[in-house]
């Protein structure tokens, strides 16, 4: 396994960092384009492992996806839907592929087999497959690998699920729901659904494609989303920069009393990563938004934070790294579902911070982190892109930290080590 010497910041980081497109927006745009009435285009698409897996999955089912324009820009895509047929889908470790594509497979004519990375086989998926069975699909298996025996159409209707394990269970059913014969009503019963902004993103993108979703939140643990049957409009999608992937770079400013600017930060967005603004401000960073760019300036002493990350769990590895370098303890809660992410992120963060001499304790639904002097060592990534970027943040302040398998960042970023080096160039970094 490769080891990457995480560069230490010799002084305050001062940089402008351009981020590639959002994974969540790109993969929703691809799905909606594959289900649409005609050709869509996607501009600013993320090209990374997760999005290339989505492209591969949709191509395997009959969608034509190719470069748009003169072909020189891999982030400009043309998507032409075709009749959906059987095929083989590699999900890799992508939650969006394993949860969003099975409902499409149920609409295909033919058998669609799914598999993925070894770690993907233990990610929660049964809820989606059971829901599809309840809606009339024939599915064999309860986790990866499994097969959907598509018959060309799906009855749809009302389905009750427990989506407390992942918002993607809901998003996946809603994205394809209008193509089911009776549409779909997804009723969640259980503890609160995590990552609600991601469901808002699904609803907003469906609306942009002419598909209305009505919602009902009863307040007693029951939420219902309804999509009527009907067509998906073709759209020219413009993808925002990935705000969750921006967070390690903004954290670099926070932990070095530096300054990092991210251009093209949207004024309004459904991306969960937007929450980093409030989190960093609460940790005493100066956060300003001007001329479409977000700038974070780090304080001399970063303040610890007590924060509920249920809606924005994706940010946990970044926030945990910040907390380990702060002054004063932090508690991160509402994130029990992170045990089903790329790895068990609560266990992984607690183990790795502790191994460097820090104090991090797993809670039922989160982490308690008390800053302590950290020493160098190997930071294990567990095939988790956000574990690797959390290690890079710590490495800015901890000499001799080596991140194992930094290549895993390719899940959602094409060249994280290059971008990190670019940020540090001119900031006195030493590796
Ligand atoms: O729909 C999406 O694009 C995502 C939803 C969230 O999943 P969970 O609800 O499983 O946390 C998020 O963490 C993931 O990175 C992307
Ligand atoms: C949880 C994540 O990914 P996935 O889409 O694979 O669930 C993530 O990117 O933090």
UniProtKB/TrEMBL annotation:
3-phosphoshikimate binds at residues 23-24, 28, 166-168, 195, 314, 341. GO terms for cellular component: cytoplasm. The active site is at residue 314. It holds the Pfam family EPSP_synthase. Pathway: Metabolic intermediate biosynthesis; chorismate biosynthesis; chorismate from D-erythrose 4-phosphate and phosphoenolpyruvate: step 6/7. GO terms for molecular function: 3-phosphoshikimate 1-carboxyvinyltransferase activity. InterPro entries: Enolpyruvate_Tfrase_dom, Enolpyruvate_Tfrase_sf, EPSP_synthase, EPSP_synthase_CS, RNA3'P_cycl/enolpyr_Trfase_a/b. Phosphoenolpyruvate binds at residues 23, 95, 123, 168, 345, 386, 411. One of its GO terms (biological process) is chorismate biosynthetic process. Its EC number is 2.5.1.19. It is found in: Cytoplasm. Keywords: Amino-acid biosynthesis, Aromatic amino acid biosynthesis, Cytoplasm, Transferase. The keyword Ribosomal protein does not apply. It catalyses: 3-phosphoshikimate + phosphoenolpyruvate = 5-O-(1-carboxyvinyl)-3-phosphoshikimate + phosphate. Monomer. Catalyzes the transfer of the enolpyruvyl moiety of phosphoenolpyruvate (PEP) to the 5-hydroxyl of shikimate-3-phosphate (S3P) to produce enolpyruvyl shikimate-3-phosphate and inorganic phosphate. Belongs to the EPSP synthase family. This is 3-phosphoshikimate 1-carboxyvinyltransferase. It comes from Tomitella fengzijianii. The lineage of its organism: Bacteria, Bacillati, Actinomycetota, Actinomycetes, Mycobacteriales.
């Amino acid at each position: 396994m490769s080891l990457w010497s995480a560069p230490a910041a010799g002084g305050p980081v001062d940089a402008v960092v351009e981020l590639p497109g959002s994974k969540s927006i790109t993969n929703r745009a691809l799905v909606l384009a594959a289900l649409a009435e005609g050709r869509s285009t996607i501009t600013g698409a993320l090209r990374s492992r997760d999005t290339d897996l989505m492209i591969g999955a949709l191509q395997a089912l009959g969608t034509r996806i190719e470069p748009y324009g003169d072909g020189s820009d891999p982030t400009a895509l043309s998507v032409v839907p075709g009749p959906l047929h059987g095929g083989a889908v590699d999900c890799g470790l992508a939650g969006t592929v394993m949860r969003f594509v099975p409902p499409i497979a149920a609409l295909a004519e033919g058998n669609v087999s799914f598999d993925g990375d070894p770690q993907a086989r233990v990610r929660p998926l049964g809820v989606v497959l059971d829901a599809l069975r309840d809606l009339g699909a024939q599915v064999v298996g309860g986790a990866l690998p499994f097969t959907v025996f598509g018959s060309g159409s799906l009855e749809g209707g009302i389905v009750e699920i427990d989506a407390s394990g992942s918002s993607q269970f809901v998003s996946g059913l809603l994205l394809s729901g209008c193509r089911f014969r009776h549409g779909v009503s997804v009723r969640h019963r259980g503890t609160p659904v995590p990552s609600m902004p991601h469901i808002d993103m699904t609803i907003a993108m469906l609306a942009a494609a002419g598909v209305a979703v009505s919602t009902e939140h009863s307040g007693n643990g029951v939420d219902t989303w309804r999509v009527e049957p009907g067509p998906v409009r073709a759209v020219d999608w413009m993808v925002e920069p990935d705000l969750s992937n921006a967070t390690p770079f903004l954290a670099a400013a926070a932990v070095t009393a530096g300054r990092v600017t991210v251009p093209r930060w949207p004024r309004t967005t459904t991306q969960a990563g937007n929450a980093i603004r409030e989190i960093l401000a609460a940790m005493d960073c100066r956060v300003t938004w001007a001329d479409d760019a977000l700038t974070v300036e780090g304080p001399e002493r970063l303040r610890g934070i007590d924060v509920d990350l249920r809606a924005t769990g994706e940010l946990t590895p970044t926030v945990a790294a910040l907390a380990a370098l702060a002054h004063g303890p932090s508690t991160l809660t509402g994130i029990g579902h992170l045990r089903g992410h790329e790895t068990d992120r609560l266990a992984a963060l607690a183990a790795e911070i502790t191994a460097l001499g820090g104090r991090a304790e797993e809670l039922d639904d989160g982490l308690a982190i008390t800053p302590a002097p950290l020493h160098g060592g190997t930071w294990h990534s567990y095939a988790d892109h956000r574990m690797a970027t959390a290690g890079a943040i710590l490495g800015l302040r901890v000499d001799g930290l080596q991140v194992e398998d930094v290549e895993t960042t390719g899940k959602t970023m094409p060249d994280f080590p290059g971008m990190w080096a670019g940020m540090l160039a001119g900031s006195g970094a030493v590796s």
